[in-house]
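On to our target:
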Amino acid sequence: MSSAPSFDQMIDAMTLEVWHNMRTAVETGRWPDGRQVSDEQRQLCLQAVIAWEARNLPEEERTGYVPSHCKSQGDAETSEQPVSLRPAGRQGDH
C-alpha cells in the first residue's frame, strides 16, 4: 500500500490550472463550476496557493496573500496571526 503524498509533493505536482482554480476558490468562496467551498477547503486552498506562488512566481507576480509581516514561506506557515483571504491592497474594502 502506498502512502498519501506529502503537502510538498502535492505542491510540486500542482499545475497552473489547479493553482488558478484554488485561487478562484479562495477569492470567491466558490469553485470555478459554481459549487460552494467550505471554510476548511478555503483554508487549504489558501495554503496551497501561498506555497505554490512561493515556489513558482517571482515576488512581484504573487497575489499578495502572504501577510506583510511574513518574510518567507516558512514564516507564513508558522505564523499565529490570521491570514486574510483578500489580496494585498484590498484588505480595507468591504
Notes: Residues 12 and 52 are 8 Å apart (CA to CA).
